[in-house]
Each structure stands twice: as structure tokens, then as C-alpha cells.
Write a structure and sequence with these properties.
Layout lengths: L15 H37 L9 H5 L6 H17 L2 H14 L3 H18 L6 E8 L6 E7 L5 H6 L4 E7 L7 E7 L4 E2 L4 H9 L24 H4 L1
């Protein structure tokens, strides 16, 4: 005789307000990042326009030609101007002009310090080289048994190696949450650095989200059960 399937009681539906609250939060997670992205981009473009358009000569100003401002024109002018400056400074004459201007700045004590600091930051952030950060890692920081995510930078050279007497020092940048541009630069023996398989982007997301957004977990491959050969009929008896 076949057994009748046992009907399991259905789980009770959550109250209407609880379902509406869940739907609202789900929609908020989708809409809020899009809205904030548009808001930030729009604000940056408007900020650049407000600074660049007044510098355009009156006869070429779109407000005088078309009777209205063209949104984004200031950003376009800034991009074209910056690209032309970059192309000119690659040549011999442009490089000489830049070196002459920097030599004048080097003679001004306070301005020299500000200029050099900003130039170093800009060179690091906008460098096209891929050797800024090499790999994500974890180190025991700020004390033992407390682990922090960091980024391996190019290894130290010269005096640091000589004075410390440690041949295998690793330069690690420990970024802070939620602003990864701030942090601590530490030098750690290579034996105390644990390299991570996650990408630099995933590590940055983990830091900026305070641990809420992490890399996708790698699922272990299914374990295959070895096939068992059927027993012969004589063994069943």
C-alpha cells in the first residue's frame, strides 16, 4: 500500500506592515546607490562648470551666444585643456618650461612644501603604473592577535633596510574605515604578512563598507561519492 504524502503546515505569512517594510528596504538598497551616484556626479560637474565657465572669454561664453549655459561645458573645457597641457609637457620645450617653473617654486619655502606634497599625492593617485599596490594582505596590527587588512606597497630600499637590519621587510599600507585614503604606513617582516587571494578592489570594498560588502565566497567543489560495485547474487544469499 502506498502511503499518503504528509501535508506539512505552511509557514504563517508575516504581517502586512512587516512585508511592506521589507519591500521598502529592498527598494531602498537598489535606489539609494543610484540616486547618490547621480547626485555626486551632477554636483561635481556643476562645481567644475561654476569655476571654469567664468574663465571663458565673453565672446566665446555660451551664455552670450546661445542665451543660456550648457551644462557640462566647463568640464569638457577642463578635460581638453588638461589633455593639451599633458601633450605639450611630453615634448622637449614643454618639459623645459615645467622644470623652470618648478625651479621657481623650489625657491619659495612654504609654497615649495605644499607643492611637493600635492604633486606626490597626484602622482601616486593618477599614476598609470600598476606598481602602487601589489596585493591585499592581513597583518597583526595594532597589536598581536588583532588582524587588519592592508595593501602591499613596493618594498623599502636603502637606509630602511640598512638601519633595521631586516632583509625581508614589506611595506604595508593599513587603510582606515570608511575613508581608505587615510591610514598607517608600516614596515613588517615578510614572515608576519599573510597574503590574500582577493583582489585589491574587493579589499577596498571590504574596508569602505566596514565589513558589510566582502568578496564572493568561493564554494567548495561537491564531493563525489565513489561508485560502489553491486554485490554478486551469490553474496546476497
Amino acid at each position: 500500500m502506498s502511503r499518503k504524502p504528509v501535508k506539512r503546515p505552511r509557514a504563517p505569512k508575516p504581517p502586512l506592515m512587516q512585508r511592506l517594510r521589507g519591500d521598502f528596504l529592498t527598494g531602498l538598497v537598489i535606489v539609494l546607490p543610484i540616486f547618490l551616484t547621480i547626485y555626486v556626479v551632477w554636483g561635481l560637474v556643476a562645481l567644475v562648470d561654476s569655476r571654469v565657465i567664468p574663465l571663458i572669454p565673453a565672446r566665446y561664453n555660451p551664455e552670450n551666444i546661445f542665451g543660456r549655459n550648457i551644462f557640462g561645458l566647463g568640464l569638457l573645457v577642463f578635460v581638453v585643456f588638461t589633455t593639451l597641457i599633458g601633450a605639450l609637457t611630453k615634448g622637449y620645450v614643454g618639459a623645459r618650461v615645467v622644470r623652470y617653473g618648478e625651479s621657481l617654486v623650489e625657491r619659495m619655502p612654504i609654497i615649495r612644501s605644499i607643492y611637493n606634497a600635492l604633486k606626490q599625492v597626484a602622482t601616486t593617485v593618477f599614476s598609470q603604473s600598476s606598481t602602487n599596490f601589489e596585493q591585499a594582505c592581513v597583518v597583526e596590527f595594532p597589536r598581536k592577535d588583532v588582524w587588519s587588512i592592508g595593501f602591499v606597497v613596493n618594498g623599502p630600499k636603502g637606509e630602511l633596510l640598512e638601519k633595521t637590519g631586516e632583509p625581508d621587510l614589506v611595506c604595508v599600507f593599513i587603510a582606515t574605515t570608511p575613508n581608505p585614503t587615510n591610514g598607517y604606513l608600516i614596515y613588517v617582516p615578510a614572515r608576519d604578512v599573510v597574503m590574500l587571494d582577493m583582489s585589491l578592489e574587493d579589499a577596498a570594498k571590504l574596508i569602505m563598507s566596514a565589513g558589510l560588502v566582502g568578496p564572493a565566497e568561493t564554494k567548495a567543489p561537491p564531493v563525489k561519492t565513489p561508485a560502489v560495485a553491486p554485490r554478486p547474487a551469490s553474496a546476497r544469499a
